Amino acid sequence: MTDLSTIVKAYDVRGVFPEQLDEPLVELFGAAFTETTGAGRIVVGHDMRPSSPALAAAFARGAVARGADAVLIGLCSTDQLYFASGHLGLPGAMFTASHNPARYNGIKMCRAGAAPVGQDTGLAEIRARVERWRAEGPPAPVAGPGTVTETDLLDAYAAHLRSLVDLGAVRPLKVVVDAGNGMAGHTVPSVFEGLPVDVVPLYFELDGTFPNHEANPLDPKNITDLQAEVRKAGADAGLAFDGDADRCFVVDEKGDPVPPSAITALVAARELARTGGGTVIHNLITSWSVPEVVRENGGTPVRTRVGHSFIKEEMARTGAIFGGEHSAHYYFRDFWNADTGMLAALHVLAALGGQDGSLSQLVAVYDRYAASGEINSTVADQAGRLTAVRAAYAGREGVTIDELDGLTVTGDGWWFNLRASNTEPLLRLNVEAGDTETMARVRDEALALVRG
Fold first, then answer.
1. Where does the signal sequence lie (predicted)?
2. Which partner from 132, 269, 420, 433 sits 20 to 30 angstroms from 157, CA to CA?
């Protein structure tokens, strides 16, 4: 039997199918989700992985056995499932392993209104119920099982996104979109229908075996085809989505990657202009440019730990209009505080098409610092190395240290954050500075301390 500690992560369930995650186990998760949320009705969607339809059906069976009605929306992106949860006012479950290899699958769960389900918001309770039922047998059947219905919300999802960004008056644009054989191949044609955007499609065929490249655009090797096609087609921009199409990565007209922090700053400026001000959430390893741009545009930046549950909690607490992460997750108040890379992409295209300059010129104002990107180091003693790094910088003149999430060390014109991975023996380093030379110096000193 699968040790649930190996597949129940901080924010979701994820494991190898069928060795770790199979239909009988998923059926128990469906029952436990229903009991934990007290739901009388749930919504379930799935991605294009070969195992996803059967697992989604098993989850629905578990919910129905506990008396809940299950609404199946079929193939969808993760942000489309969040839309369904918000639009219908129902708890939901999405079957996907995002950018993980084909042999994996998983469950992302939310309460009604796309409110997150993580370890502290129901996932630990769900796991405990599943463990108890595996040991003692499933609970007694309820008197009246629920029903299963099917509905298609793709058009409603697309219409909602288009209602939030006005692209009607923008100049015509040519945009290459790399769906990575993931769910963007299903959603992009509907979302972009009728817009003044000439879409050049790459890998729109739904194929959960990912025959062309991994559907993880944050890995540079997975956007090389997009970069080449943007240059070949003379496109204005390129968009790359991950497997479940909730993250979007942008390249400019030269094929150069646009840092997600620059996208966060750009979208923040637009949302602040549209709403007349407000709070914008950013995690602590986004660029300094993000809080700077937020303040320049009359907003209030709020810094959080890394992770979507922290972003969503702060958005709900503060009433924030927008939030962004370094990992290309973008969260919108008008999207139930949930993340949608598709909406961020529409904002980028609206900003680009609303002026005459190129995308590289447009984002230059938001991309102000030299960054290392995330550098991983394998270490046996994470806590010990973090303590050693802290000791090396403690007491230095002009240096401050905080431990909101890992270790953040800030000096004159530079900062770095060092965090332990929750799932692997890794320390993750991010460095930023006002110039490349300073960034490289700080990076190399920090890495020498980390790696001993």
1. none
2. 269
Encoded tokens for 215: 């559907």
Q: How many other CB atoms are there within 10 angstroms of residue 295's CB atom?
A: 12
Q: Which helix (H) or strand (E) holds 26?
A: helix 23-37
What is the Cβ-side half-sphere exposure of residue 197, based on CA atoms within 13 angstroms? 30
Q: Which helix (H) or strand (E) holds 205?
A: none
What residue spans of 321-380 are helical by DSSP H? 341-353, 359-364
Helices (H), 183-223: 184-191
pTM of the predicted model as reported, rounded to 2 decimal places: 0.96
User: pLDDT confidence of 237, banded at 50, 70, 90?
Assistant: very high
* 368 within 8 A of 402, measured Cβ to Cβ: no
Q: How far apart are CA 368 and CA 259, in angstroms?
A: 11
- Read off the tokens for 27: 């059926």
Active-site residue set: 98
Average pLDDT, the chain: 96
DSSP string covering 87-112, please?
A: HHT--EEEE--TTS-TTEEEEEEEEG
Instruction: Identify the three-state secondary structure at position 241.
Output: strand
Domains of the chain: 4-152 (3.40.120.10), 156-166+174-254 (3.40.120.10), 260-364 (3.40.120.10), 370-451 (3.30.310.50)
Q: How far is CA 116 from CA 47, 93, 269, 417, in A?
A: 19, 11, 26, 26
Q: Distance (Å, rounded) from C-alpha 77 to C-alpha 56?
A: 14
Q: Is 274 helix (H, G, I), strand (E, B) or coil?
A: helix
What DSSP line would sit under 49-80, residue for residue? STTHHHHHHHHHHHHHHTT-EEEEEEE--HHH
Which is more confidently placed, 90 or 452?
90
What single-letter DSSP state applies at residue 339? B
Q: Give the mean model confidence (pLDDT) for residues 35-48.
A: 98
